[in-house]
Task: inverse folding
């Protein structure tokens, strides 16, 4: 069975550019989470959706970050404009229900120069 | 100046020994706890979970203990193998939101 699929796996961009990260959750899962992992802060929850509706976006750093989930099989996390401090590994995870085990993708490693 | 990252606890054990990884959680209202394993270059993977109305749960080679009085969680790995080398995270869940601890790096020496 396919797990959570993220793209791109690696992205190198210059400061000021727009970055879009993509996620396909596991089919049938109704909750989707975006996490960011850095050496400084560890794993931080940015936002999560339940049944395609954003439930808690209090972890989104600032207005430069936005996330959408137009349907049950696709979500995007956008950073515009990107800054060097956004460099991190961004993980998408999905679960069946909000309190279930999280299934993580392989992550998108973002480097902003 | 020099940037300072998280100082992850480390645990080094000999192959075949038992490992105990500890975690302190912060929210007494958390109702569900999970241990995850993260190998280099991969996302965290579920190991075992426990609900707040339990104090012990066993899986294959792993046991999780929950002490709500002191808000402490531990993961015991029996007969540790080189493939167990990874970073281990505990996560507490409350109202649908999972918050991860800083992680412990486990190194298994052959």
Result:
């Amino acid at each position: 069975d396919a797990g959570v699929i993220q793209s791109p796996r690696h992205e190198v961009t210059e400061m000021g550019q727009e970055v879009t990260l993509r996620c396909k959750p596991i089919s049938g899962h109704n909750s989707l989470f975006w996490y960011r992992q850095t050496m400084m802060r560890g794993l931080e929850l940015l936002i999560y959706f339940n049944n395609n509706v954003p439930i808690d976006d209090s972890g989104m750093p600032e207005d430069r970050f936005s996330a959408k989930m137009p349907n049950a099989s696709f979500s995007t996390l956008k950073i515009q404009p990107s800054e060097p401090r956004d460099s991190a590994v961004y993980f998408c995870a999905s679960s069946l229900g909000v309190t279930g085990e999280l299934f993580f993708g392989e992550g998108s490693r973002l480097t902003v120069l | 100046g020099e940037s300072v990252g998280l100082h992850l606890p480390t645990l080094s054990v000999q192959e075949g020994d038992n490992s105990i990884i500890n975690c302190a959680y912060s929210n007494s209202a958390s109702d569900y706890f999970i241990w995850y394993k993260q190998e280099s270059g991969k996302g965290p993977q579920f190991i075992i979970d426990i609900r707040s109305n339990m104090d012990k749960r066993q899986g294959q080679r792993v046991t999780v203990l929950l002490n709500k009085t002191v808000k402490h969680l531990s993961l015991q790995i029996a007969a540790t193998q080189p493939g167990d080398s990874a970073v281990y995270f505990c996560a507490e869940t409350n109202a649908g939101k999972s918050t991860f601890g800083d992680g412990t790096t486990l190194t298994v020496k052959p």
